Amino acid sequence: MSLKIAFLSSDAPVALAARDTLSARYGQVDPHEAEVIVALGGDGFMLRTLHATQELDAPVYGMNRGTIGFLMNEYHEADLLTRLQQAEEEVIHPLSMRTMDREGMLHHALAINEVSLLRAGPQAARLRITVDGKVRLAELVCDGALVATPAGSTAYNYSAHGPILPIGSHVLALTAIAAFRPRRWQGALLPQSAKVRFDVLEPEKRPVMADADSISIDDIDWVEIQSEPAVSHRILFDPGHGLEERLISEQFT
């Protein structure tokens, strides 16, 4: 079996060395010509690779040359072609973020893991939360809030005490970060079709920033978030180690 593989790596020395070794062994093609893209790095690099290659037909297979590697497979140099042939595919859809800053500029970004709002000053943020046009929480005083996909539910969302979501659940997690009022409000589970809007109250006194997979917008006025089914990311995992298994295992560690 032969495959046209594009090896991409982060700037970490261990990832660069892996790219050189694997491309010498299996060959290297341009990502636009590849049948599969192999990402070498950590989860952050995997997210960047998925965003950068979302217009291409090739699925992405990650091998961990970073720290956690939740979205990655184990790194082995041998038998890569067999592993790619036997790999199982997961298809995930990102979130779309639309936000207006206080200067009136509109910004758009996609997020595979989560869209988060974070206070950008010494005082807690004041947010109003609207879901599908209906105000659900007139005031949330907090350090921030986020909306996470099932694929991203074990990342920042889980650290903020949000729920882990099964991949096939068609649910989004809306999670508060250090909520002060309502006291200890953790958030809500929403259907994947929900459109969530955060309005920043007192933005001059309590500035807020928005972040979509490390694309940050400062000094925002409002944010709208919804799933983007028109965009699909194809990720390959070794058999028995797909996202569903990882999400379940994470809850027992």
TrEMBL record:
Reactions the enzyme catalyzes: NAD(+) + ATP = ADP + NADP(+) + H(+)
Primary localization: cytoplasm
List of catalytic residues: D43 (proton acceptor)
GO function terms (MF aspect): NAD+ kinase activity
Database matches in InterPro entries: ATP-NAD_kinase_N (IPR017438), ATP-NAD_kinase_PpnK-typ_C (IPR017437), NAD/diacylglycerol_kinase_sf (IPR016064), NADK (IPR002504)
Subcellular location: Cytoplasm
Cofactor requirements of the protein: a divalent metal cation
Keywords annotated in UniProt: ATP-binding, Cytoplasm, Kinase, NAD, NADP, Nucleotide-binding, Transferase
Keyword NAD in annotation: yes
EC number: 2.7.1.23
Pfam families attached to this UniProt entry: NAD_kinase, NAD_kinase_C
Binding-site positions, NAD(+): D43, G44, R48, N113, E114, D143, A151, T154, A155, Y156, N157, Y158, S159, A178
Keyword NADP appears in the UniProt entry: yes
Class of enzymatic activity (EC top level): transferase
Family: Belongs to the NAD kinase family.
PANTHER family, alphabetized: NAD KINASE (PTHR20275:SF0)
Function: Involved in the regulation of the intracellular balance of NAD and NADP, and is a key enzyme in the biosynthesis of NADP. Catalyzes specifically the phosphorylation on 2'-hydroxyl of the adenosine moiety of NAD to yield NADP.
NCBIfam families membership: PRK04761.1
Name of the protein in its database record: NAD kinase
Gene designation: nadK
